[in-house]
Amino acid sequence: MPDLLLELFSEEIPARMQAKAADDLRRMVTDKLVAEGLVYEGAKAFATPRRLALTVHGIPARQPDLKTERRGPKIGAADAAVQGFLKATGLTSLDEAKIQRDPKGDFYIALIEKLGRDAIDVLAEILPVIIRTFPWPKSMRWGARSGKPGSLSWVRPLHAITATFGLETEEPDVIKFSVDGIEAGQTTYGHRFMAPSAISVRRFEDYEAKLKAAKVILDPQARKDIIFADAKELTFAQGFELVEDQVLLDEVSGLVEWPVVMMGSFEAEYLAIPEEVIRATIRNNQKCFVVRDSKTGKLTNKFVLTANIEAADGGKTIVAGNERVIRPRLADAKFFYETDLKTKLEDRLPKFEQIVFHEKLGTQAERIKRIERLVAEIAPLVGADVAKATRAAHLAKADLLTEVVGEFPEVQGLIGKYYALAQGEDASVAAACEEHYKPQGPADRVPTDPVSVAVALADKLDTLVGFWAIDEKPTGSKDPYALRRAALGVIRLITENGLRLSLMKMAASALAALSLKPADAQKLPSDLLAFFADRLKVQLREQGARHDLVDAVFALGGQDDLLMIVRRVEALGKFLESEDGKNLLAGIKRASNILGIEEKKDKRTFDGAPDAALYGLGEEKALAKAIGEVTAEASAAVAKEDFAAAMSAMAKLRPPVDAFFEKVRVNDDDAKVRENRLKLLNEIRSATRAVADFSKIQD
Length: 699
Hints:
49% of the residues lie in helices and 14% in strands. It is an alpha+beta fold.
């Protein structure tokens, strides 16, 4: 079957847009093909700074013929209905229709046959529409073509369209269409500087090979691999090692079509600046990688750049140009850093009185005071020194007002740690200046130093409670204040540090520190707790916990203690993997199902203790005795938070439960006996609720 080759050749596409654009092109073309009945075998899209390309393999040469039936009016219907039916179906008379018998009467049926079109004609129809409606985040219009104003809106001026379709063994056909005066053909262009001449291409393999010969690496991943491998080799050869940066690598690969890796240097005096500031300066301004000394692990005064050309002088001019740009940038960074060191962190804090955190939540200065107050309560609960934690909370936000953070926002917190150490603060206080922002995502590190943990919890809880109090909660996919991330941060801080904290009490303390008092202040902590519960469910499921086990534990309440919930879910999961666990679950579910049916039938619940005098069978007595023993043993284990022992106790119910259902008929003819046996089943359900609500667990 034939293959499609499509290339859209333009001015430079921003690197950040390339990956999504390639995926959008693949999706839009293949979706249209399938909608037209042209089911393909495979498709792959590519992007370089100057082109989007797509190859689709195994497209049928022709659409399938379609035969459909269309039901018309009844026999004897009004002439207007008949004429409308004939017009809609393309029939010339009712003689061409067949009659279908129906209980409601006899109806005319039109057999409509739609002949399939050649795939190349379908492509000529759909491709211009896709190009014109392409979903760029930002697009532009440009000057007139051939004296006519341009109508195409595109990310950058579009210069050429390559579109061919055909079998591998034959000369492909050009798909005939045009967009804004640009005729589709089979001509593309190589590297802007090293091979700018026109290139005639036929199909994808030919196209990719000719581009490579013209100094264009089409595949973004191939460009990344070249840059990474060459950079590693270049640095290793000089006794250094590359500081890897996947985000920067992705961006740089979108800036070049023919990557050439080189190394430059800067004055060693700039190494006095914190490494992170050096890296941010070089990365942000010149898209270059920094380099470490492989022996000491410290940054060197070298950097790795990626050029888009094989220069005649071996790259000396390119390297010198990058050095000329980086040098003054580092000089600025050094000046900012040294200037910042002249002012103590606490001396910057008065400026926060003039900076609004949120119009309904006061200034940054007020927020810092709230965090200090909350930290003083949390610190003893997490084993932190209260004085150090309060001091850290006092200074943690001060670096937001420094020159370095103003220039490089990504180093906030980190630079605060450097400044705190420079002014002689305790190491834990300095660490908390950086770590109180953590964790900022699922992959981010969780602080373990108690001072950092205390400040991080206080910071996040103040944010959550504050925005909850002014009713600025996340809705759907919108979360402008990153409250989901803050809640997940609190959860990870608690669970990964093994902390036993009451979220309700902490939320209440955070609420008390606010000057505003919302109307539903009493409900706010519990409402926020439900939000934490949802976030914890998501996290546990992502970690592989079964969603029904999470629901079974949450159904018991007690969501205030996140660590206990996590341990309970873990123990329940292990128990249900055992034979005793599986069989007991089946028995409990059977008891719950019978109870549910009978409670619905009688419109009542079967609470209360069974009457031992009504036990007529040994299996009833054995089950009642086992329930009493297991309930006591499991409750004692739960009280000690030994959930594994609680599950082991529950396992002892399996034999008497099995025997009960084998020998005892629950719905006895004697109403009193029936009620007593249903109460006994309710005892099973109540006993197992010591560890989980088994009715929530799927079989």
